[in-house]
Description:
This protein is 77% helix and 0% strand. It is built from 12 helices and no strands. The longest helix is centred in the middle third of the chain and has 29 residues, at 101-129.
Amino acid sequence: xxxxxxxxxxxxxxxxxxxxxxxxxxxxxxxxxxxxxxxxxxxxxxxxxxxxxxxxxxxxxxxxxxxxxxxxxxxxxxxxxxxxxxxxxxxxxxxxxxxxxxxxxxxxxxxxxxxxxxxxxxxxxxxxxxxxxxxxxxxxxxxxxxxxxxxxxxxxxxxxxxxxxxxxxxxxxxxxxxxxxxxxxxxxxxxxxxxxxxxxxxxxxxxxxxxxxxxxxxxxxxxxxxxxxxxxxxxxxxxxxxxxxxxxxxxxxxxxx
Length: 257
């Protein structure tokens, strides 16, 4: 176990240290989502009521979606450090060392998931100030839900970054997947009354279950209509996390950085 644990912890620590040394990443990861939440949420609050309960404003409805967006981009784009490490020669030194590829994946993915938690907690506090006040136990559930989502998304980011050599290409490919996933998760609008073909895409989207789990923790049961059960949301999260992590491990073992 120690053969992979120490290298994984070292890579995890390097990710955290690099993040706090780069203030632009700290600010850039927080400010845009907050602006989206305030302006979009406020703008739609007076007009958009379809599919929403009487006791919830659109600003509150939009909160889980923006929270997921913060975790999503922080977790995935932290994987871009793989491309930077390769360019600077650090990754080559890691690969020639007697370090299992599993340790590299574990350190990088855990680092991305941890950074997402660090970025998301201040926004949760902002939500509390805005009137979204879940119970203490619910706050722990929120962190667990989002950690599972960020872990799986960091796995996706690792897999793609391991194969790509361009930061610009990585951004383009990730946006092509991430934005549709987020839009079709119930983050921006309720999912009732959608066309049948769109219902299928929504059901196959892992982020749908992340948003549904958050909504059930933050709001009263039944307030937003029929949502996937908490058990189903948990099962999908575990399967998605395990699948993306194994995909990252397989990519690291087969591909050359």
